[in-house]
Amino acid sequence: MSDLGYPVAAPPPAPGPTSDPVRGGGPVIALVVPDLVNPFFAALAEEAAAAATADGASLVVGVTGQQALREARFSDFVASSDAIDGLIYVGIHRRNPRLSRAVAEGLPVVVLDEEIASTSDVDTISVDNYGGAYQAVSYLAQLGHRRIAHIAGPPELSTTSDRLRGYRDAMAHAGLDVDEDLVLHGPYTEQFGASTFPYLAQAEKTPTAVFVGSDIVAVGMLGAAELHGLRIPEDLSVVGCDGIRVGEWLRPKLTTLQQPVTHLVASALDLVRSRIEAPDRERVDKVYPLQLVIRGSAAAPVG
In this predicted model, what pLDDT tens digit does every residue of 200-218 receive, in sequence order? Predict the structure, then answer.
């Protein structure tokens, strides 16, 4: 009772480490992605947000616009912030010295999708890009295609080199020669996909099929094919990679290598949480298979 004769409520207890109203008792994890224009990266971010919430963690998402400087600055921001406990890093450049420095200083990091130079001590999660590419090209060869092009990503990326190696080995196994004029490198964008037809047409023998290293590039190709007088798959069979949902809405639907997004995200969250809790545990590398999903954009060559 107060001196005035009515009860006074006790002051609320100071928030402890498990009652922080912002953190909710769980870790705060940052996710960096190259952009949200590519549906694959958007799907990763969406899945990570849902999984983090279900797991009692908080998620901060940084979008770098595929710019190396912004990747570096976001790495600095995360490393210098007392509010962020760990980082899931999806980069689009092979080098990020500031990320390497943050790892050396003890930031818990999981690298997802692309290899990053000078981060050999971090946990990594990836897919079998070599095996997926081999599977896709072998499928096109089994359909009867003999002139198979490859639309690849930026040459400096590990995903690009692994898919290119799978393409070359599958062609060799099928007894097919690789025409270097039918191997094109470019960014993972619709615009690049739409721009490839004049280059493919310049080859001595035009292709009847193409393995594309990214679904978003394949979307650009399917969208521009009619402008170049081509029918998909009658004149050109197309197989993509990533399994983005928009591929199911195209006409024809896109045959693709499906990325296991749910498993990738769940593993990334598990690894970064365990690294936060046990900084000195052994390094972990996880590799998931790609699944060939057969739809309407690939068929046997006409005639």
Answer: 999 889 999 999 999 999 9
CA 175, CA 183: separation in Å to the nearest integer? 17
Question: 129-259 falls under which CATH superfamily?
Answer: Response regulator (3.40.50.2300)
Map tokens 């498990």 to a residue.
18
pLDDT in tens, 233-268: 999 999 999 999 999 999 999 999 999 999 999 999
- In SS3 terms, 15-50 reads as CCCCCCCCCCCCCEEEEEECCCCCHHHHHHHHHHHH
Query: Residues 19-46: pLDDT tens digits?
Result: 343 445 689 999 999 999 999 999 999 9
List the chain domain ranges: 28-127+260-288, 129-259
CA nearest to 175, candidates 138, 135, 131, 129 = 138
Length of the chain: 303
CA distances for 228 relative to 5, 59, 201, angstroms: 89, 44, 10
CA dist., res. 89 & res. 109, Å (int): 7
Amino acid letter, 197: F
Cα 242 from Cα 240, distance rounded (Å)? 7
Answer positive or negative: Cα dihedral of 167, 170, 172, 178: negative
Q: Which fold has domain 28-127+260-288?
A: Rossmann fold (3.40.50)
Report CA-CA distances (Å) from 105 to 79, 108, 216, 268.
Answer: 8, 9, 36, 20
Q: What is the mean pLDDT of each run of 10 residues along the chain (303 residues)?
A: 37 40 73 94 96 94 94 92 95 90 92 86 95 98 98 95 98 97 96 96 94 97 95 97 94 97 97 94 95 98 85
Distances (CA, A) of 210 to 127, 145, 230, 238: 21, 10, 13, 5
